[in-house]
């Protein structure tokens, strides 16, 4: 956000409200030994925003980027400049669905249009909206699957890949445990990264689900 400096009159007004004479008086509680009265010589003189931006870009060009193997949304992205202009607007800044629908028709319409495009791109019947991140979306998808199967509270077990990101795993464990929904881990081959299909088929049985220990396993 842009820096908006205070006028001397603003500063004097705030100091009077706080009951101090100088800005330095606000830091009286800091022991003298911990104070820095002057910047070290290694710290360069102040420069303009334009100059520091140019300097950082020059230093960034010296970097040699490596191949990124991160997951969970942390891989390399190209973000068009228009995206930042749109998402930083107040009405779009949060993914949270406004409670006052009558006052947020624009936001809700944009969410609907965007998610409609997502279903078209992915070929899926549904696409979630207003979920903060992938972990929340995963947890909601599991709960939806259990409800669709008409499983009573405490009567479901879900199969989760062992390769699932541990942060996602912790989120679903947090949300499923109070609802007494069990979790079974699907093993995978660490060399190929592939799941054990036969293990999954054995757990699910014909038709995609089967009774197991009086509980229903679902993928």
Task: Describe the overall structure.
The structure is a single chain. The protein has 219 residues and is α/β, with parallel strands linked by helices. Among the domains are: 81-122; 134-218, no CATH class. It contains seven helices and four strands; from the N terminus they run αααααβαβαββ. Strand 3 and strand 4 (215-218) form a beta hairpin. Helix 5 packs across helix 6. The chain is elongated, with a radius of gyration of 27 Å. The two termini are 45 Å apart.
Summarize the structure.
The chain has 219 residues and is an alpha/beta fold.
Layout: helices, strands, pairs:
Elements: H1 8-18, H2 49-60, H3 81-87, H4 105-122, H5 134-148, E1 156-161, H6 166-176, E2 182-186, H7 197-204, E3 210-212, E4 215-218
Parallel strand pairs: 1-2, 1-4
Antiparallel strand pairs: 3-4
Helix pairs in contact: 5-6
Query: What is the tally of beta strands?
Result: 4
How far from one another are the termini?
A: 45 Å
Number of helices: 7
The neighbouring-strand order within the major sheet is: 2-1-4-3
Strand content: 5-15%
Assembly state: single chain
In N-to-C order, the SSE pattern is: HHHHHEHEHEE
The geometry reads as elongated
Radius of gyration: 27 Å
Fraction in helix: 25-40%
Mean pLDDT over the residues? 80
Alpha-beta content class: alpha/beta
Biggest β-sheet description: 4 strands, mixed
Which spans of ≥5 residues are poorly predicted at pLDDT below 50? 210-219
């Amino acid at each position: 956000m842009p820096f908006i400096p205070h006028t001397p009159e603003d500063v004097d007004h705030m100091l009077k409200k706080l009951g101090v004479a100088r800005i330095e008086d606000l830091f009286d509680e800091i022991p003298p030994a911990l104070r820095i009265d002057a910047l070290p010589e290694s710290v360069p003189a102040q420069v303009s925003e334009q100059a520091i931006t140019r300097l950082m870009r020059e230093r960034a060009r010296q970097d040699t980027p490596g191949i990124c193997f991160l997951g969970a949304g942390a891989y390399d992205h190209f973000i068009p400049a228009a995206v930042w202009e749109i998402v930083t607007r107040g009405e779009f800044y949060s993914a949270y669905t406004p409670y006052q629908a009558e006052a947020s028709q624009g936001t809700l319409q944009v969410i609907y249009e965007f998610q409609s495009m997502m279903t078209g791109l992915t070929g899926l019947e549904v696409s979630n909206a207003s979920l903060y991140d992938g972990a929340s979306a995963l947890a909601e998808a599991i709960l939806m699957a259990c409800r669709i199967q008409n499983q009573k509270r405490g009567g479901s077990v879900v199969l989760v890949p062992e390769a699932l990101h541990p942060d996602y795993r912790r989120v679903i464990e947090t949300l499923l445990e109070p609802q007494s929904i069990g979790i079974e881990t699907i093993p995978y081959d660490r060399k190929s990264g592939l799941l054990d299909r036969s293990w999954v088929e054995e757990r699910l049985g014909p038709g995609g689900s089967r009774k197991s220990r009086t509980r229903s396993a679902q993928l």
